[in-house]
Amino acid sequence: MEYKIDTKSVQAGYSPKNGEPRVIPIVQSTTFKYESSEAMGKLFDLEASGYFYTRLQNPTNDYVAAKIAAMEGGVGAMLTSSGQAASFFSVFNICTAGDHAVASAAIYGGTFNLFSVTMKKMGIEFTFVSPDASEEELNAAFRENTKVVFAETLSNPALQVLDIEKFAKVAHAHGVPLIVDNTFPTPVNCRPFEFGADIVTHSTTKYMDGHASSVGGVIVDSGNFDWTKYPEKFGCLIEPDESYHGISYTERFGKLAYITKATAQLMRDLGSIQAPQHAFLINNGLESLPLRMKKHCENAMAVAEYLQKNDKIEWVNYPGLKGNAYYELAQKYMPNGTCGVVSFGVKGGREAATRFMDSLKLAAIVTHVADARTCVLHPASTTHRQLSDEQLRECGVSPDLIRFSCGIENAEDIIADIEQALNNI
User: How many angstroms separate the CA atoms of 245 and 242, rounded?
Assistant: First the structure.
């Protein structure tokens, strides 16, 4: 039986048998015992499934990964230590020195820096394009050595809605997959695989955890991209892997080739595993995710409508507002709501924005977003401060932009806090 996502968020990933724990158990062990060297050897050769060292796999992590895969509609998933690790692994799994990638410029500042600086040092070059680029502009960004396209379904913090079908169409025309970061809308509000995306990433630190208690990330594989059609591009998945006695991931694992390689090779070598305790906490957040996302979106809409009418506000951006530049795309891809984040500018620029934020009482100034508590941040001076003014504009971040993340408190209390803070300007 195919359950609705509300049910999957509670039931998927773990089905206890008779006498087993009803709640996902925390398997707090680095190692796992076997009766013979031969049995363990088969695990190291990927000839058998099982656990031998938590850096590669852990039952608690796998239960939670399976739940997220079910919620996204994928064939498999892998938890990582952070959302940043998920972004890195998702690309590095199929790119190597000398390769090229296309990415939306409107992405989280840390991801932009990862791609434009750190991975460039590794020999992987990125071309950044506007999320609003036409098909012609997108096509012009590709090269013979392009391996992947990366974008965010709803950009942080500019809140630009990606035309997923357009980006998927162009990526597939060039024989490469589309990876999308679906952190802000979550699978509750956006279903990227249904519109052609091939791989989804999340910072589970945000709405999935929902309580600012655990850092984590996840990569979900749709299983839909046929790597074998492009052996000249994706030999890493098709050709024998000598570090595993010559297995071919596509031959051995089929639709699970990509995510198996990420686990067996990248996690083995780079080790950005999520702690089982953190996976347990994320699972607790997942169980209430559909309920919380509805409340986040309701509060954000109320706040956006209030700000739109306030004469101390220079501009307000929320894709759920009619008249917003991304309203139509939001209705197509996120008909039940986008997220709880609203961005806006206060009249008076950066100085006024600082005075406003310092006057808030309920909303906290924190380097975080998307949890149960209302919080606020000035990206240009924090999360995006490493970017130049030109790069900020490319990311859709203006110097006066305030990122306001509505929690699940009473909307009237959130608005009252905003109002008293604006009165101090």
Answer: 5
